[in-house]
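[Q] Does anyone have a clean structure-token version of this?
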Amino acid sequence: MTKMQKQKGFTLIEVMIVVAIIGIISAIAYPSYMESVRKSNRADGKAALNDVAQRLQRCFTAYSSYTHANCGVGQTLDGGSVSSGEGMYTVTGAVAATTFTLTAAPVAGTTQAGDSKCGSLTLTQAGVKGASGPQGTECW
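[A] Here you go.
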């Protein structure tokens, strides 16, 4: 009588079950990860908005106008823009002598371009914060 040797290894079904489980976990984890990345990158837009707003406030304190000729950032925003530190956002603004509204728009081609929850962030001279997406002020 010969003994049958027990074979070692995995069956195709076992391997396919493992692949299916990894696929399901990946399908859930990747979108959650990307949303976390977008949320952390919003800090770049917020920092850029606050920096530009502070520079405009210094101009207003010194010259009683956001658009004074000696106010460099006010002149830059007149038809131009300022890039955020990490390059995720571009800050533009509607600047008048006594008011301003700054907008930080996501740069195309970055992860922030897919930020459907918040979109563009806004800040006014009165400190009113907002966003173009459905979450609005929750983005701040």
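[Q] Thanks! Anything notable?
[A] The mean pLDDT is 91.
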